[in-house]
Amino acid sequence: MTFPYQCLAARESTETGPGGWTLFGASGSTLVAQSSSGGTSTWTKPDDVVAKPEPKEEKEYKEEEQPPQKKVKLSQPPKQQNANFSNLIVSSDGRYIVGVTGEDKCIRVFKTDIQNQLQQLSERHMTRRPCSIALTSDDSIILCADKFGDVYSLPLLPAPDYQAPEAPEEPVQEAEWVPSATVLTVHSGRNRKTLEDQLKQKKKGPAPPKDEMKFEHQLLLGHVSMLTDIVTARTDDNRSYIITADRDEHVRVSRGIPQAHIIEGFCFGHEAFINKLCVTRSGRLVSGGGDPYLYVWDWRNFKLLKELPILDVVADHLKSRPELAATEATKVAVSGIWSVPHQNEILVACEGVPALFSFKVDATTNTSSAATEYSSAIALKGNALDVAFLPMSPTSSAAVVSIDNVHKPASTKEVREEKEVHRLQCFSSQENGKWQEDSHTSEALKSFHEQVFDVEAGAIGGDGSATGNEKGGLGSADDKALRDMLYSVENLRKRPGAED
Q1: CA–CA separation, 110 vs 89, rounded Å?
Q2: Are the C-beta atoms of 378 and 358 separated by less than 8 Å?
């Protein structure tokens, strides 16, 4: 069983004529590119060279001397860890691909040529793990949001003559850290847990110094909570904005560069974590996460326009597919929202749900009213992971959906029994607004699907077979790594009583 594509991205390719396209996919730590003409290329991160430990010299002993009782164990070289892609975006001109590998906290920039060969131009290691990236409208700056709540700007193409500022000669001596809580101020279970954590932190001693980023970057803004997504928007009067979301139910609208420190306002309404933001073709903002609703915003005026009942839609769809044997849906975790090109429509994916859900979002530019309606569910053969749109004509696109071919549909833990499951499904929009499976595009992506890689941090063995126990569960450390990489959205949900 092959490893799924956890990330997809696409661009228009006019080199081979109108209607040309190139699809990019990340399977573990490998990037794959295929054009409409059929050419395919791959990129894999080179293995880091690990120096072998030098054998210790054996001491010669005289006959009357006794050898040491303890044997010294030679240290083993550290195990190489794959750096799997977690984000993948394409510049608006289609010339550059920007990807994030989470394990090494690295932002990688690739350039593609007319043969779609991938050439890595730069790799920049952040001090904190990036959770989302975006490009400004002119493709000159990368916006990187990390899990500690900060947003940095980095030039897409680093300046060759940039020199990092010199570090201070003498480190500043920090005062001894003292926990803010004491046994006399503990009044609740949460405070007791906080005190225990602070005492453990004190025993560990001061934190090691944070590695400095030696490349050009700038801190733009920050949240007091974990950031989950970032998007950019530009209004008719040519003003740019940065919209960010976090785990603490906040949607913040900030001005664009160079005034990103100025907060225009907040969109309040969520009661659970926010995971995804999407700016539609009509300029509306759609947000979703752990709530039973999607929210449609007039973000310029911070006004909630509509609530879309995503939980009810998911529950009804699962009931209509008894072959899934899924339990009744009592909560959802939105894992993706995509705006359909050339249409006022969005596609929505939820974690562990083998379907996409289409909503029509229509808004007028002169008033703040918006009409939104649920359109249909697109049944999939596996849980939806990512979506990319291939331009087929100036007014139509085909949706390519990456599905989880390792786990059973509607499950994030049980392994499939089928050995050969297609990793991609393709759909085209019909005149009646419904989506229908597109066999022609699926056939064109046959070589893209047939790419097989040896992925260490996943449920794939060296022979390409799935690894799982006989009961169909995932138990090994590598299997857990795969599950964590594909299904991490629900972990953002706060435990009951966490705010007490």
Answers
A1: 11
A2: yes
Gap between the Cα atoms of 452 and 5, Å rounded? 11
The rounded distance, in Å, linking the Cα atoms of 311 and 300 is 27
- Helix, strand, coil percentages (3-state) for the chain, rounded to 5, are 10, 35, 55
Q: What is the DSSP letter of 173?
A: P
Q: What pLDDT does residue 425 have?
A: 96
CB atoms within 10 A of CB 500: 7
* Cβ 397 vs Cβ 341: under 8 Å: yes
Rounded Cα gap, residues 129 and 147, in angstroms: 6
Phi and psi, residue 207, nearest 5°:
-70, 150
Task: Name the β-bridge partners of 312.
Answer: none
Nearest to 143 by CA among 94, 89, 86: 89
d(CA 44, CA 184): 56
CA distance 407 to 417: 9
Q: How far apart are CA 98 and CA 118, in angstroms?
A: 11
The token pair at 498 is: 């966490």
| CA 26 – CA 216 distance, rounded (Å) | 27
Spans of the chain below 50 pLDDT: 49-53, 56-59, 61, 63, 72-78, 364-368, 455-475, 500
Alpha-carbon distance 57 to 68, whole Å?
Answer: 14
Q: What is 120-136 written as a DSSP string? A: EEEEEE-SS-EEEEEE-
Which pair of tokens denotes residue 219?
A: 């801190």
Tokens of 477: 């450390």
Q: Tell me, what amino acid is at 38?
A: G
Which DSSP category does 500 fall into?
-
H or E, element range at 441: helix 439-444
Amino acid in position 333: A
| CA atoms of 359 and 370, how far apart (whole Å) | 13
- Within 13 Å and on the Cβ side, how many CA atoms surround 418? 12
What's the pLDDT score for residue 370?
54
Give the C-alpha separation, 468 to 186, whole Å.
45
Rounded CA separation 167/169 (Å): 6
Q: What is the SS3 assignment for 58?
A: coil
Output the DSSP codes for 252-282.
EEEE-TT-TTSEEEE----SS-EEEEEE-TT
Q: Convert the pLDDT of each residue in 204-220 to its tens digit.
A: 666 555 668 889 999 99
Structure tokens at 478: 């590598």
3-state secondary structure 84-122: CEEEEEECCCCCEEEEEECCCCEEEEEEECCCCCEEEEE
Copy the structure tokens of residue 231.
């998007």
Total length of the chain = 500
Give the integer Cα–Cα distance in Å for 126 and 122: 13
